[in-house]
Amino acid sequence: MRSVGSSPLIHDDIPSCIAQRVRGRPTLRDFRRVGANEIKLFSRMKAQRSPNSPRLKRQTVESPRSESADDQRRTATDVPRWLTVLNREVIACRRCPRLVSYREQVAREKRRAYRDLEYWGKPVPGFGDPDARVLVMGLAPGAHGSNRTGRPFTGDASGKFMYPVLYETGFASQPTATDRNDGLKLKDLYITAAVRCAPPHNKPLPQELANCSHFLDRELAGLEKVKVVVALGKIGFDAYLNYLRRKGLVTNKKGYPFKHGARHRLPDGKVLLASYHPSNQNTQTGKLTRRMFLTVFQEAAKLADE
Questions:
Q1: CA gap 73, 84 in Å, rounded
Q2: In the predicted model, is pLDDT for residue 54 greater than 50?
Q3: Residues 33 and 147 occupy one common structural domain
Q4: Structural domain ending residue among the three candidates 13, 36, 61
Q5: For residue 65, what pLDDT is reported?
Q6: Predicted confidence (pLDDT) at residue 38 exceeds the cutoff of 50
Q7: What pTM does this model have?
């Protein structure tokens, strides 16, 4: 410990450029007031501490968002080529004039809370682990959620409800999802949707569902390790059954009624679990509680391990 000028005790491991501005033990608020270069210098000096220092251990725990460029490139190369090609085609799709018009209008006009942010405004590809044993089948992107951020259940109320549950059950690396660069990773779980563009009033038309089905067919064919399907809402539930009909595995959907918590063993050995969709309409009214939702994913995890 030493003093700098008229400043009281300043720690030896703090660069003088910081010490001259901060009196006593620096806080996070203090560091926010200094330049980025000075903080980098401070970080390098901290790295020279003994590896046994508890303070060093806390400082060097990295957030997923601070991955190196090499780590990011390795992650990118882990995506199989078929999925990369499919996602590019999904993003470029303009098959449904009504959906194209709506998603782009929303991206131009924006919600007031997001007016300074750039909207994605394109079809939203699936997200998650290509080797997943659990598949989540959603409805469609939210107008100011996925249509804004470009990733399923990211940046909206449904994601705020769902990702903490996925984190608690071991499927997500973190409980929050704010944007595509937030460091979130999914393990053993993949999220897709019946429709890839945000539909007006969250209600896609039958033809729009049909137009998206060829993307879904290719995606599900590539996800070869899936054992459990969690369908969120009746539209997602029916979309998966229609996929089975196109494959010739199911001829009549009447044998597979939708209700929250339903469990159906399918002809190919997979298990279809049904859940209410984690929309505001369901979660704010108590139709879907956190406990109900958690139970579904706990069951999915258990079935995947069988």
A1: 14
A2: no
A3: no
A4: 61
A5: 34
A6: no
A7: 0.75
Whether 69 is covered by a domain: the verdict is: no
Q: Show the CA angle centred on residue 183, arms to residues 66 and 197, nearest 5°.
A: 145
Whole-angstrom CA distances from 266 to 199, 202, 205, 228, 259 are: 30, 28, 27, 10, 16
Q: Do 56 and 84 belong together in one domain?
A: no
Among 158, 159, 141, residue whose Cα is nearest residue 104: 141
- Quick one: which of 191, 186, 169, 289 has its CA closest to 236? 191
Domain contains 109 = yes
Domain count, the chain: 2
Segment 5-29 shows an average pLDDT of 42
Burial group, residue 202, by CB count within 10 angstroms (0-12, 13-18, 19+): middle
Q: Which domain holds residue 46?
A: 2-61
Indicate if 94 and 134 belong to the same structural domain.
Answer: yes
Query: Do 109 and 258 have their domain in common?
Result: yes
pLDDT at 157 over 80: yes
**What's the full length of the chain, in residues?**
306
- Say yes or no: 151 and 99 in one domain: yes
**Can you state the angle between helices 206-222 and 233-246, rounded to 10 degrees?**
70
Instruction: Verify that 136 and 56 share a domain, yes or no.
Output: no
End residue of a domain, out of 38, 61, 84: 61
Structure tokens at 219: 């995606």
Local confidence band at 42 (pLDDT 50, 70, 90 cut-offs): very low
Residue 78: band (very low, low, confident or very high) from pLDDT cuts 50, 70, 90 = confident
20 and 135, same domain (yes or no):
no
